[in-house]
Each structure stands twice: as C-alpha cells, then as structure tokens.
C-alpha cells in the first residue's frame, strides 16, 4: 500500500515538473533571450511598412523642370570662362635691333623705359661684307709674284701691289672696292689683258647689340614712336 502511494506521488511529481517545464520555462527563457538593453531580433516580414518612405523619396527627388536651369547656368559659366576679358593686358617677348653701338642701345633703353616691364641687353657676333677685292691667284713664292707684277706693268696696268705677308702672301692685289659693280669692271679689264683676275668678297666679324624686352601691354606698345632709326627691326623671341 505504501509503495503504491509512493508510486502515485512520483507520477504526480513528474507530471507537475513536466507541466512547469512546458508552461513556465518558455516564458522564463523568452524574457532573457538577449542581454538587457539590446533590442530583440525581428523578421523583416514582422516589421510594418515605413509610412514616410514614399514621401521622403518624393521630397529628395529633384523636379524634372529644375534640370534645365541648372544646365543653362553651367553653359553660361562655361561661356563666361571661354570668352576673353577685354581688359586683360597682352604680354609678348620681343627683340629690337641690331644696334650698331652700345651707346645706341643705351639711348633705346632710356626711350622705352616707361613702356617696358623688363629689359635685357645682349651682344652677338655677325659677319658683315666690307667690300670686294680684285686680285690675281696667289703665286707659289715671292719671286713669282714679282714676275706677275712686272707683266702687269708691261701691259700698262697700274694700281697694283704684291702682298708680302699675312694670309694672302705672294698675291698681286689689283684694288679694293665697296661697290661690286666697280669691282667687276676692274676684274674684266684685267681678264681682257690676259690675266686670270679674281673677285672676292671681303668680310669681317663685328659685334652687334640687341635689346630683349617684355612690354607692359603688347597691344598698345609702339616702339617706332620712340626709336626712329630705320635700321632697327623687331621680332618675337623667347621670354626671360
């Protein structure tokens, strides 16, 4: 009898424990599924649709008509940037010259000083024609050159001399001329007399002076009004 009573009590206790596990344990675990203060996870399907999404999208999207003024404003800005400013000064580097002497260069610098923001002077070497020389071909030695001179005298040809030193040693000179026409006439006379006269241009290296400058305003720069030498010219050059 006592065993039956214990058996019934055990069954009743098992039923009570099972009921507590089935009913009370789920609520207890549900209340502590996450740490305090951390929101519970929810499925997207459980969330209500946001009521302000449509209204917010409508407020953010720009109206179609607003794009035209924006494009117009951008094109106007581009045109304004592309169009030159009529008040902008024009700069260009140029060279004036050649000046024959340093004094001529100094006078030009003083005359242009107020219209130029930067200047520099430079010197170059150039080859210039200094006239024409009529002569016979050089002889192999001084004796042969003297013999040619005597032959010229025998033909009544005057105004000659034998070069005895320098680069043209043992050459019979027949005259120096500035005008090439006069030099050709003299050469033809000697050739007609039976001699092989030659005509050679005489040159020498001389310095010439240039003035490089940057005008304050190239469009308004009139250097001819201040430098009246017709031998002076101008051309563009690299800036410095």
UniProtKB/TrEMBL annotation:
<feature type="domain" description="SPOR">
    <location>
        <begin position="130"/>
        <end position="197"/>
    </location>
</feature>
<feature type="region of interest" description="Disordered">
    <location>
        <begin position="52"/>
        <end position="72"/>
    </location>
</feature>
<protein>
    <submittedName>
        <fullName>SPOR domain-containing protein</fullName>
    </submittedName>
</protein>
<dbReference type="InterPro" id="IPR007730">
    <property type="entry name" value="SPOR-like_dom"/>
</dbReference>
<dbReference type="Pfam" id="PF05036">
    <property type="entry name" value="SPOR"/>
</dbReference>
């Amino acid at each position: 009898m006592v065993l039956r009573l214990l058996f019934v009590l055990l069954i009743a206790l098992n039923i009570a424990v099972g009921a507590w596990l089935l009913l009370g344990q789920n609520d207890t675990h549900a209340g502590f599924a996450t740490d305090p203060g951390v929101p519970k996870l929810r499925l997207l399907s459980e969330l209500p649709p946001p009521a302000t999404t449509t209204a917010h999208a409508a407020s953010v999207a720009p109206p179609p008509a607003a794009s035209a003024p924006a494009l117009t404003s951008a094109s106007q800005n581009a045109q304004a940037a592309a169009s030159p400013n009529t008040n902008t000064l024009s700069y260009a580097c140029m060279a004036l010259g050649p000046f024959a002497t340093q004094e001529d260069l100094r006078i030009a610098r003083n005359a242009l000083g107020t219209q130029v923001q930067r200047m520099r002077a430079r010197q170059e070497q150039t080859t210039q024609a200094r006239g024409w020389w009529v002569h016979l071909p050089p002889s192999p030695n001084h004796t042969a050159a003297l013999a040619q001179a005597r032959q010229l005298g025998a033909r009544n040809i005057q105004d000659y001399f034998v070069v005895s030193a320098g680069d043209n040693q043992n050459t019979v000179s027949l005259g120096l001329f500035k005008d090439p026409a006069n030099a050709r006439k003299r050469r033809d006379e000697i050739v007609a007399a039976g001699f092989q006269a030659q005509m050679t241009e005489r040159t020498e290296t001389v310095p010439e002076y240039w003035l490089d400058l940057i005008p304050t305003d190239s469009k308004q720069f009139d250097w001819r009004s201040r430098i009246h030498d017709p031998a002076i010219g101008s051309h563009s050059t690299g800036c410095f």
